[in-house]
Amino acid sequence: MLSVKDIDVYYGNIHALKGLSLDVNEGEIVTLIGANGAGKTTLLKTLSGLLKPKNGTIHYMNESIVGKQAQTIVKAGISHVPEGRRVFATMSVEENLELGAYSRKDKNGIEKDMAKVYETFPRLHERRKQLSGTLSGGEQQMLAMGRAIMAKPKLLLLDEPSMGLAPLMVQTIFRIVEEINKEGTTILLVEQNANMALSVANRAYVIETGRVTLSGTAKELQASDDIKMAYLGGH
Ligand code: ATP
What we know:
Number of helices: 10
Order of helices and strands: EEEHEEHEHHHHEHEHEEHH
Radius of gyration: 17 Å
Structural class: alpha/beta
Bound molecules: adenosine-5'-triphosphate
Mean pLDDT: 92
Family: Belongs to the ABC transporter superfamily.
Domain ABC transporter: 2-234
Protein name: ABC transporter ATP-binding protein
Keywords: Amino-acid transport, ATP-binding, Nucleotide-binding, Transport
Pfam families: ABC_tran (PF00005)
């Protein structure tokens, strides 16, 4: 579904991604594990058209998406939930969700998906008229995910969905990630919480200073001593 080959991405002179390659197959949850500054967010931004690689190729559904505009990429079915759960604070929950569907014209489909988002996140339904800026951190993360779902993505890019959330809320968010995947959305998940990420993912890539240094099934990585020491708290 997604094939990234040898991409180099720069911020001015800073070489953030160095010949990075990875693949995501339809139906999978793939997770990217790596320390702060490894380049995970840079990769997601590149996939969603916010940054352009200097070299290398990115194919999505067998078509090159390098150089395409962000809204064209959303229309093609890639939806990005950025780090820090950015919601439009002065708009209601419902208005934020409607915005997620801005590129769609199928009114019936939009209504159906709105009902589905409310079913998945009952809390958002309770608060649908509330201003988004007054939601709790966990609720804002739900809203950011709900808004991305409203774009009807085939591939969902999730950047650190557990960041700053209490443990119970982290579990809820990961359960929902699994549900969204079971309903047919492929997921590329960036996470600091490697334990949780590997417990829901099919496969994983470890990224260090802009390069993939290890990849395999989630089970293989969970069993690797190096990974245990570096990312799973040494247990
Ligand atoms: P984190 O988990 O801390 O967000 P990350 O793996 O997502 O880390 P990136 O944010 O992709 O890492 O950053 C990769 C590298 O690019 C880092 O060295 C970072 O300092 C650099 N970088 C990121 N954004 C910019 C920017 N706008 N300008 C210059 N350098 C940047």
